[in-house]
From TrEMBL:
Database matches in Gene3D superfamilies: 1.10.1760.20
Transmembrane helix among keywords: yes
A UniProt-annotated Pfam family: ECF_trnsprt
Key words, A-Z: Membrane, Transmembrane, Transmembrane helix
Taxonomic superkingdom: Bacteria
A GO term, aspect molecular function: transmembrane transporter activity
Annotated protein name in UniProt: ECF transporter S component
């Protein structure tokens, strides 16, 4: 991995730990589920740096945040890792490998992450013999996060465009 790519991967991972803290400080504990601040750096890493960087940021953000701040809670951590891995990988595949339209990249990454979360919840529920309403849980998270999803769809294309113009020598491949 090139030094520049590795540096940006680390910066996105750090942003994924810091942004939720800012949102929780300003808006309380519920602000994270509404505005989805950890999702932004993961999506950006995938879109700008590719699926491997997106996966790394998707894994590191919740793990580092849990270790450093206690959020997400340990019980939610595996599911958040799976969801954010899905975001980062799918954003990277659709943007860097398949070269889809940026809006389709975002929407497919969001859908893939939530779908993986639902599947993980369902599998865990079956293995542990728990009545886990996976579809309801994920649907509730989507509805709660609509403000964050809208902000992502509006801001991320702008951030991607600014990043591509600002970073000299940025490699689009």
């Amino acid at each position: 991995m090139k030094v520049k790519k590795l540096t940006f991967t680390a910066l996105f991972a750090a942003a994924g730990v810091l942004l939720p803290q800012i949102f929780h400080f300003i808006g309380g504990a519920a602000a994270g589920g509404v505005f989805l601040p950890m999702h932004f750096p993961v999506l950006l890493a995938g879109l700008l740096l590719g699926p491997w960087a997106g996966a790394a940021v998707g894994f590191l953000c919740p793990v580092l945040s849990c270790l450093m701040t206690g959020m997400p809670a340990a019980a939610k951590l595996p599911f958040m890792i799976i969801e954010l891995l899905g975001y980062g990988i799918m954003a990277g595949l659709t943007s860097k490998i398949w070269r889809w339209n940026l809006y389709f990249c975002l929407l497919s990454a969001m859908a893939a992450g939530r779908l993986l979360n639902a599947v993980a919840l369902e599998i865990c529920g079956q293995l542990l013999h728990l009545n886990v309403p996976a579809a309801v849980s994920v649907w509730t998270a989507v509805l709660t996060g609509i403000p964050g999803i809208v902000v992502q769809i509006v801001l991320i294309p702008f951030i991607v465009a600014v990043f591509r113009k600002a970073v000299s020598g940025y490699d689009r491949t």
